[in-house]
Amino acid sequence: xxxxxxxxxxxxxxxxxxxxxxxxxxxxxxxxxxxxxxxxxxxxxxxxxxxxxxxx
Length: 56
Hints:
Helices cover 20% and strands 55% of the residues.
């Protein structure tokens, strides 16, 4: 799923949503992709978040 908000804001949302759940793993990985937009090659830079939790 692609969500276009700052990484720290997304991390805060995840912490709020899953408050009280057991945190299993958090990974924030920078990614870069060459894509085409309007017939031009551009470099898309993003952070991929893996947020693994388990309900207690």
